[in-house]
Amino acid sequence: MKKREALEKFVEQLKNKKMFSSILISNDNQETLNDFANNLSRTIFCENLSIEKDSCDNCKRFENKSLSNFVVLGDGSLAINKNDVVELMQKFSLTTNEVNKFKVYVLSNAENLKNESANSLLKFIEEPPENTIAILLTKNKSQVLPTIKSRCKLIVLENENQDESPKNIIEELLEKDKNSILLANADLKKIDKSELIAMLEVAYNRTIIKKYLNLAEATLQLINDLKFTFQTNLAIDVFLIHISEVM
Known about the structure:
The protein is α/β, with parallel strands linked by helices. The protein has helices spanning 3-15, 30-45, 57-63, 82-92, 115-126, 146-149, 169-173, 178-183, 185-190, 193-211, 216-228, 232-246, and strands at residues 22-26, 70-73, 103-108, 132-138, 153-156.
């Protein structure tokens, strides 16, 4: 579904007072997900339910990040812990003083939930406080727990613009010889964990599943290890050794 079409459908739901309490937005590009979640959230708070930014007080406050009943949880890459979810639940269980009755939280991303945090969130989705809207994002809907996915309205966004950005370091690595691949471990270990996860996910969706399917499982394993374990250096070593053996 195109972004504009999805926004128009949600506006219609809001006007008819039939808005979904939990939505799962899927796309393989984090920037697309963040942009859509931001636009949808602002529209929900807008006094005129305008898809375009207008001059209403709520839109201004949303842009200034001064709305107390709007929360973004997660950075799209690293694991989301139970404490983060519990803190969100406690905050949203309180009565809001805002003029707009809605409370909106964006979870970035649903596949990054640890088991304990997923179980806590599941309860919150099943029995949300009044006028609470959950916008869950995912770059891989197959990795979202079925119990959470089944309780959300799933929207799969189309990629409207072909990604023409240059190859990242992971994609370049796939074209190198065995020694160069193994020597890359020092460079990869210097990269910020969130940034490395983002690179791996781009490489997976844009290149690996199309040209190097034999590396798909190892790539997903490294992404998972970077998100949920502390042995990142070892995980990188194992990944590079695997690449060097199969390429």
